[in-house]
Design a protein that fits this description.
With about 120 residues, the chain is an alpha+beta fold. About 50% of the residues lie in helices and about 15% in strands. It contains eight helices and four strands; from the N terminus they run E-H-E-H-H-H-H-H-H-E-E-H. Strands 2-1-3-4 form a four-stranded mixed sheet, sandwiched between helices. A hairpin with a 2-residue loop joins strand 3 and strand 4.
Length: about 120
């Protein structure tokens, strides 16, 4: 089963991840949040696997522009609601394979992940 890369196409980190996967001959499908969105069940599964603190991109402009009330008292449920409303707040990329999930792009981590596959 090929991996699925989740994100938005114009993100620089996404471009680096896609370039690495292509250069290494890794089969994957691309899920564009801007076109396809993300469903609650998938996002909840990611939060269960990685933690909402890892998945929520608090350094991005989308999060930083939120009203202070939306940023206050964050927990898993509130973070999921924020990410569902604006998927650009999900840390990118998210790469999902058969029984595993990674977020962010680090070439060494990708190389290790696919060496085990």
């Amino acid at each position: 089963m090929p991996a699925t890369l989740y994100g938005i196409p114009n993100c620089d980190t996404m471009k680096k991840a896609r370039t690495w996967l292509d250069a290494n001959g890794i089969a994957y499908s691309f899920h564009d949040y801007k076109k396809a969105g993300i469903d609650r069940a998938t996002l909840t599964g990611w939060v269960d696997a990685l933690g909402w603190e890892t998945l929520l991109n608090r350094s991005g402009t989308t999060f930083r522009k939120l009203p202070d009330a939306d940023k206050a008292d964050l927990d898993a449920a509130k973070a999921i609601d924020l990410m569902l409303a604006q998927p650009s707040m999900i840390r990118r990329p998210v790469l999902v394979g058969d029984g595993w999930i990674e977020t962010g792009f680090k070439p060494d981590l990708y190389a290790d992940r696919f060496a085990k596959a």
